[in-house]
Amino acid sequence: MDHHDHRIRRRILLGTGATGLLGAAGAAAFGATANADPVETSAVEPDVDSTAAWGARPPNGTNPVITGSPNKLIVHHTVSANTADFSRAQAHFHAQWVQDLHMDGNGWRDSGYNFVVSRGGWITEGTTGSKAALLDGGRFIQGIHTSGQNSQALGISNEGSYHDGAEPTGPQWESLVTLCAFACEQYGIDSAEIYGHMDFSSTLCPGIFHDMLPRLREEVGAARDW
Questions:
Q1: 32, pLDDT greater than 50
Q2: Hey, what CATH topology would domain 47-224 get?
Q3: With DSSP H G I counted as helix, E B as strand and the rest as coil, what are the percentages for the chain, rounded to 5?
C-alpha cells in the first residue's frame, strides 16, 4: 500500500444503487455506469493520529469544549525546520515539539493548534480532544492559536517555515486540503471561510500559505462539492 493511502480512509458516494465504500477508481467506474445517479459526494475522512498515538502530555487543565460548530478555519505554520524527513515518526516528534513549546515556552494548557499537518503529509491531533470532536461534528475544542478567534475558529497548522519563500510539500498540501474539506463538511463551514493567521493578527504566519489561500479554498470546495 502506498504510504499516502493509509492517511485517507474513505470517500462516500451516495446515489441510486450505491452501497459500501468507494475509492477514487470505484467512484469513477460508478459514475460511468448508465443507471448511476450520484447525488452527493462527501469529503474524504483523513487519518488523524490522536494525541495518544503520538504520546502527548496531558493538558495542564481542561480544554474548553464548545457546543456547536466553528465558523471558520485558520491556517498557520509552526516555524520549525523544513525537514526532509517525511516519516510518521518525524510527524510525532514534531507534534511533541509543538506541545512542549506551547506548554513550557508559552505557558499554555496544551498544544494550541487543533491539528498539525507534517511535511510528510501526516496529520496529528494538537489540542487534546480535537479529533473526537471533529468526528462528532457537533462540538469543537477551543485551541490557543489566534487571539480573538479561538472560541469560533479551528486552528490548523503546518510543519515548517514558509515566510522566506519555501513552499509546502506535495503530501503536506494534499493532506491540508483533505483535512480542511472534511472539517468544513463536518461543521458546515463554507469553503470561503478559510483564512490565515495574519488576517487576524500582526504576524507573518502562515507565510506563503496565505498567498495560496485562493487555491486552498478552490480545492477544498472541489473536494467537498461546495
A1: no
A2: Lysozyme-like (3.40.80)
A3: 35, 20, 45
3-class SS at 169? Answer: coil
Residue 116: alpha-carbon gap to chain centroid: 7
H/E stretch holding 46 reads strand 45-46
Q: What is the pLDDT of residue 222?
A: 95
C-alpha cell at 191: 469553503
CB-side neighbour CA atoms (13 Å) of 208: 12
Q: Do 13 and 30 form a contact (C-beta atoms < 8 A)?
A: yes
Closest CA to 93 of 54, 35, 41: 54
- Distance between CA 156 and CA 142 in Å, rounded? 12
The residues of the chain that CATH labels 3.40.80.10 are: 47-224
Torsion region of 121: left, alpha or beta (phi above 0 gives left; psi -120 to 50 gives alpha): left
What is the pTM for the complete model shown? 0.84
pLDDT per residue as tens digits for the range 70-124: 999 999 999 999 999 999 999 999 999 999 999 999 999 999 999 999 999 999 9
